[in-house]
Amino acid sequence: MTGRLLARHRGLAWLGGREVLRVLKLWSQTILAPVVASFLFILVFGLSLGGRIKSIDGVPYEVFIVPGLITMAMVQAAYQNNSSSLFQARFDRYIHDILAAPMKGWEVNLGLSLGGVVRALLIGLSLLGLSLAVTDVPVRHPLELVVAVTFALVLFSSLGIVVGIYAQTWDQAGFVNNIVILPLSFLGGVFYAIGRLPSPWKEVSHANPIFYLINAVRFGFLGRSDVPVWLCLAVTGVLATLMVAWTSWLFATGRRLKA
Amino acid sequence: MCRCPHKRARRRRHPLANVDRVTEFPAPALELTGLTKRYDDGLLALEEFDLRVEAGAFFGLLGPNGAGKTTLISAVCNLIRVTAGDIRIFGHEHTTMEARRLIGLAEQDVNLDRFLDVEETLMYHGGYYGMNRPTARRRAQEMMDIFDLRGKAAVRAPKLSGGMRRRLLLARALMHEPALVILDEPTAGVDFELRLELWRYIRRLHGEGTSICLTTHYLEEAEELCEEIALIRGGRLLARDTASGLRETYDAGSLADVYVKAMGTAS
Fold first, then answer.
1. Are strands B44-53 and B30-38 parallel, antiparallel or unpaired?
2. I need a surface site. Which of A70, A159, A187, A226 has the fewest CB within 10 A?
3. Residues of chain B contacting A99 with CB distance shorter than 8 Å
4. What is the pLDDT of residues A165-175, one digit of tens each?
5. pLDDT digits (tens, 9 = 90+) for B85-136
6. CB-based contact (8 Å) between A250 and chain B?
7. What ipTM does the predicted assembly reach?
8. d(CA B104, CA B98)
9. Interatomic CA distance for residues B158 and B183, integer angstroms
10. Which of A25, A89, A258 lies closest to B79 in CB terms?
11. Using a CB-CB distance cutoff of 8 angstroms, which residues of chain B are in contact with residue A259?
């Protein structure tokens, strides 16, 4: 059964394998660097400066920031990997080798997305392991955590694909990460609980989609979130679905990929 | 050059083309009907273009820059969106998986994956075309032997010399044993020695029954290799015939004279 499925979608398996191979070949840049950067946040903000903030809603500060930092590292990796890999393939035109091959649009879409997903998971698991070594971060709701992480990876892998297709320069590919994802992650409650913000910042924060994602992941780890977890998962799930619909349309029609 | 079916049937099997392609595919290798491509910026690159290339043919496309040669190839290989018209590869509509499997493309620009070494480049290409790992590995070894790339198996594409990259491009195009090979200026910018070497590969490939469509700016290359030549300009077919037929039609002493006369008439 699995063998037959693999034989029918062998191109997809090779393309996904190529994307993962790229991540592993560049491991110091794709895995090690973001793990070190995020772990330093945990050490500096959590264990060092965190001494000044005893706890948030009964959760020690060094534990409180772990879910948000893991989420931020994972979504940035999923986005960056796919946007840069696809943009590079377009820039060097080796995307033609893939577009000409006997693969359906959804297979190319999925294959190109897998690198970002695997990279994000490797970073997330590495950070979780390191966090467990220095903090007592629990996993209280594993099911919600898995669903939240799945939505996050789908959403940001697909966003990376969209930007990789639309970007005309490296600057444009980097712009979304530096000007959109990073600021929204910081403002989405990685380091603080939104409930503690004064009005109107508290209400404004509810317009930030990453706020819902971080709270969904935080609920999975700590069992607490600023808004109900079903709302967090619903918002993230709808956004992920919309992004997948966008990439599917691009690959089905060839818009922007093919002149 | 004789194109008798009985001669083709006697062609021997060779690793470059492991089946007798001419008897395998009765339909034309390439059939374009009313092919039109207008780019988003309004440029009309091809207009109502009709072309039929028989299975087993060695067909040349000649024309100046901007004539529509690369657009035509890109349309056939699903690299651009077609505005109107029909493209068939051995009878299959060009977007189908069957049609895609039958085409091998070596583009004018060196578009190799910078993250893969020579062996991986070939294996992953084979994989995209449905090969399993052992088959892809075996075929990659074969291609590296044929194209003298064995010594560079573990070298990434950006570290190869220009000549090696050209060979790798051709090896990649042939990796999945296509029945129709499209070569877009395969000898552009290479030295004379490598050009002769590439000609030898291409001739051998055609000798085994693979259909070949070649674009080139080198008139002597077209005359030397192609059984039939089409002259195109401004997205339109000006003439097609054998080299001698074209010389006769245009009352010219050489293909260069034919080219000058044909392009002069068209402008």
1. antiparallel
2. A187
3. 78-79
4. 999 999 998 89
5. 999 999 999 999 999 999 999 999 999 999 999 999 999 999 999 999 999 9
6. no
7. 0.92
8. 13
9. 21
10. A258
11. 39-40, 74, 80-81
Identity of the residue numbered B223: E
Mean pLDDT on A183-211: 90
What span, in angstroms and rounded, lies between the C-alpha atoms of B247 and B228? 12
**Chain A residues with beta carbon closer than 8 angstroms to that of B129:** 11, 101-102
Distance CA A171, CA B259 (A): 45
Q: Which two tokens stand for residue B161?
A: 């010399």
Stated as kind and residue range, the H or E segment containing B99 is helix B97-102
- Helix (H) or strand (E) segment spanning residue B87: strand B84-89
Q: How far is B80 from chain A (nearest CA, A)?
A: 5
Q: Kindly determine whether residue B74 and residue A259, on different chains, have CB atoms separated by under 8 Å.
A: yes
DSSP state of B235: T
Distance in angstroms (rounded) separating the CA atoms of residues B209 and B56: 5
pLDDT value at residue A35: 98
Cβ contact (<8 Å) for A10 and B127?
yes
The answer to whether the beta carbons of residues A222 and A189 sit under 8 Å apart is no
- Residues on chain B touching A257 (C-beta within 8 angstroms): none
